[in-house]
Fold these 2 entries.
Entry 1:
Amino acid sequence: MSSTNGNKIERDEYPTPIPTVEALLSKLTLKHNDTFLEPCRGSRNIFDRIDLPEEQKFWAEINEGVDYLNTSFSQKDVIITNPPFSLTIEFLRKSLSELAPNGTLAYLQRVNFLGSKCRVDFWAEIGFPNKTPVIIPRPRFVNGGSDSCEYMWMIWDKGNRFEIERGISHLISK
Ligand SMILES: C[S@@+](CC[C@H](N)C(=O)[O-])C[C@H]1O[C@@H](n2cnc3c(N)ncnc32)[C@H](O)[C@@H]1O
């Protein structure tokens, strides 16, 4: 997608491919009064597919003048995004702090984000996601060129809204 092929798009503007969004959302059951946040909605590929009344849906997007990292949100029940990968740690810390006690959080990421010496302390601090479906086939990002990394949805599903096995599993997209 970005650093793996040497090309980098400003602000990591890589919309999540629609089949990748739909595969995830096909496993999601929302409660009628859930509130939802998309921290960087970009081209709205996730935001527009969340089946809740508009007044229960919240968003940030730096290109629309709302910097997520500088904007406070009240607690939300469901937070789903594909963040700018260069800011994943900052985004995740903020999203976890804004998640309701029985909330559900899903972030798209490369599988190798789970490793790396530099993230050992980070993972010890925030705790691993309890569901990590690896996306099959590997998503292809517009303008991203070829990318040999595997991707997953990292899910902290305290509210048990995703019908996805705990631990590592596969999520097949069409
Ligand atoms: C990888 S794209 C994903 C967009 C969208 N979440 C999706 O799934 O299609 C990352 C998005 O983050 C936005 N962005 C970057 N830094 C941001 C920030 N500090 N606050 C809010 N949005 C930001 C970019 O403009 C871009 O639209």
Entry 2:
Amino acid sequence: MRTIGLLLCMAAALSARTLVVVTAHADDFSIFAGGTVAKLIGEGYTGYLIRVTDDEKDGVATAPESSLRNGRELNDAARILGIKEVVSLNVKNDEMDPMSGTELMERLMLHIRRLKPDIVMTFDPWAAYEENPDHIKTGRAVVHACWMAQIDRFHPEQIRAGLTPHYVNELYLWSRGPHVVNKVVDVTATIDRKIEAVRAHRGMIRDPKILDELREKSRQIGELHGMKYAELFHHMDSIGTGSGDKYKALEVLPAGEKR
Ligand SMILES: [Zn+2]
């Protein structure tokens, strides 16, 4: 019995894995990674979502009304994908520049040290031709926060307040423009939930054709890689060390190759 108890404890420890998704805007995470988020949560990850901006400029209503509506619909999308908790940083939409990168990194680090994710997902800050400043600034701050969260001398007041340094194992970076792709995730089992989650953003996704286009894009990516539906990422592991696959995989994944 003691052995069985020990095995159960080990199984519980192994399954207690955490995913943190950081989205610049309410709809980004479900559009770019909704299938993978639902898949990882289905495999046992506990999912958390951090929304960086207040989304006040996306919608047809006034800024405060749009922000509130987009926040409500974000919660609906997160629930559909199985996310446990949503945190909003409420940085002003499209006006992030007055906020220093260091301040944004500090706020993200606090949640990384609090939630202790195994995987963090966000925008690829090295992607080409990204025009949206919120996407660029969010991706950069998240990657930097993951690096710095493990260093106890960086924002030691967080350590004094009871948090501990944290090492993030993996980054999944998405992009809408060209970027280095080294991971293809089969989302055939979760594509319907992804589309349902994107549909929840009725204030931001006002043209239903976008849902069909998203499904078709995922099908085309899947077809290239021997899957029915798929999502693409740049994957990095061993963040904060000189090892892992983060530097060796700097080539576009050839069609048909799975990793
Ligand atoms: Zn966006």
